[in-house]
DNA sequence: ATGGTGGAAGGTCCA
């Protein structure tokens, strides 16, 4: 089973690009973030034409929005609100073998890394705390968590650890928050089991100047985690870096794992 | 230190 996660930054605009990715990677499941489309306007027919018969989506106007596209049947799991908002940042499904799949879009957090001065940063930290509490009370089992978590936890997950220590996405308080989420449910960073932590790895490059492709000023914001029960089933993982160089790209590249389910 | 670009909008807000 190949599972892709991708922040598509508008599904309607980039449906053809999604098709190109599907053609190249032949995924069984695609988890999208920032679909930026209401459920009413979700382009279900176009997505089905790409081979995904089973669709879950939860969107709103202009912002956020998540979707799970699958060739295999999905059973939607009961969602919940996060930080007392209904802002379409999470979807969960049960896969045919019983594995739970969670797709997250964690708040980006604005520009100022201080929860006292920046409500968006406070929201991001609270969201992480709620993830820690929620997964912390779940029993161990077969689970996969994917998504745009908007945090690059390792020094090698950013182009310059030193220069990004005060930049939202790589500050110590966010990294600590993300590490607590991981510890609460013994999550394993699936991608880093194949691409060693000593090696730089990015999944996002800003649209703004001089980050792509020349200076490679990227960050790894998109993640795939599995519970220990699934770790031995992992077969491979990669970032589809070339998609960032295509015409009209998302600022995120797709990330994927191969796993025996 | 600042501003750079892109998407959904059709104001600006958000990333």
Would you give an account of this structure?
The protein is built from six helices and 14 strands. It is an alpha+beta fold. The chain has one domain: Deoxyribonuclease I, Chain A (4-Layer Sandwich), CATH 3.60.10. Strands 3-4-2-1-14-13 form a six-stranded mixed beta sheet. A six-stranded mixed beta sheet has the order 5-6-7-8-12-9. Strand 6 (90-94) and strand 7 form a beta hairpin. The model has no long low-confidence stretch (mean pLDDT 97). The structure holds one DNA strand of 15 nucleotides.
Provide a short characterization of the protein structure.
This protein has helices at residues 15-25, 44-49, 119-136, 161-164, 172-184, 228-231; strands at residues 2-7, 29-33, 54-58, 66-70, 75-76, 90-94, 100-105, 143-148, 188-189, 204-205, 218-219, 222-226, 234-239, 255-259. With 261 residues, it is α+β, with helices and mostly antiparallel strands. The protein binds one DNA strand of 15 nucleotides through loops.
Give the count of helical stretches: 6
Spell out the helices and strands N to C: EHEHEEEEEHEHHEEEEHEE
The CATH topology comes to: Deoxyribonuclease I, Chain A
Our Rg estimate from Cα atoms comes to 17 Å
What separation lies between the terminal Cα atoms?
7 Å
Give structural attributes.
261 residues, 6 helices, DNA-binding, six-stranded mixed β-sheet, Deoxyribonuclease I, Chain A, alpha+beta
Task: Outline the secondary-structure elements.
Blueprint: E1 2-7, H1 15-25, E2 29-33, H2 44-49, E3 54-58, E4 66-70, E5 75-76, E6 90-94, E7 100-105, H3 119-136, E8 143-148, H4 161-164, H5 172-184, E9 188-189, E10 204-205, E11 218-219, E12 222-226, H6 228-231, E13 234-239, E14 255-259
Parallel strand pairs: 1-2, 7-8
Antiparallel strand pairs: 1-14, 2-4, 3-4, 5-6, 6-7, 8-12, 9-12, 10-11, 13-14
Helix pairs in contact: 3-5
The chain binds one DNA strand of 15 nucleotides through loops.
């Amino acid at each position: 089973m190949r599972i892709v996660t991708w922040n598509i930054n508008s599904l309607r605009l980039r449906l053809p690009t999604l098709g190109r990715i599907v053609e190249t990677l032949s995924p069984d499941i695609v988890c999208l973030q920032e679909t930026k489309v209401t459920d009413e306007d979700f382009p279900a027919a176009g997505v089905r034409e790409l081979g995904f018969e089973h669709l879950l989506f939860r969107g709103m106007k202009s912002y956020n929005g998540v979707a799970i596209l699958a060739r295999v049947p999905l059973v939607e799991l009961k969602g919940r609100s996060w930080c007392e908002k209904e802002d379409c940042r999470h979807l969960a499904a049960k896969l045919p073998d019983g594995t739970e799949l969670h797709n997250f879009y964690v708040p980006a957090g604005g520009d100022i890394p201080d929860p006292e001065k920046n409500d968006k940063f406070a929201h991001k930290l609270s969201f992480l705390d709620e993830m820690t509490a929620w997964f912390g009370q779940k029993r161990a089992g077969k689970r996969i968590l994917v998504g745009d978590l908007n945090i690059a936890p390792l020094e090698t997950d950013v182009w310059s650890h030193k220069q990004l220590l005060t930049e939202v996405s790589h500050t110590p308080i966010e990294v600590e928050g993300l590490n607590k989420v991981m510890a609460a449910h013994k999550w394993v960073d699936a991608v880093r089991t194949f691409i060693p932590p000593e090696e730089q790895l990015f999944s996002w490059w800003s649209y703004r100047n001089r980050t792509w492709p020349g200076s490679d000023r990227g960050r790894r914001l998109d993640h795939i985690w599995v519970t220990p029960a699934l770790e031995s089933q992992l077969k491979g993982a990669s970032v589809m870096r070339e998609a960032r160089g295509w015409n009209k790209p998302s600022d995120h590249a797709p990330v994927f794992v191969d796993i025996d389910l």
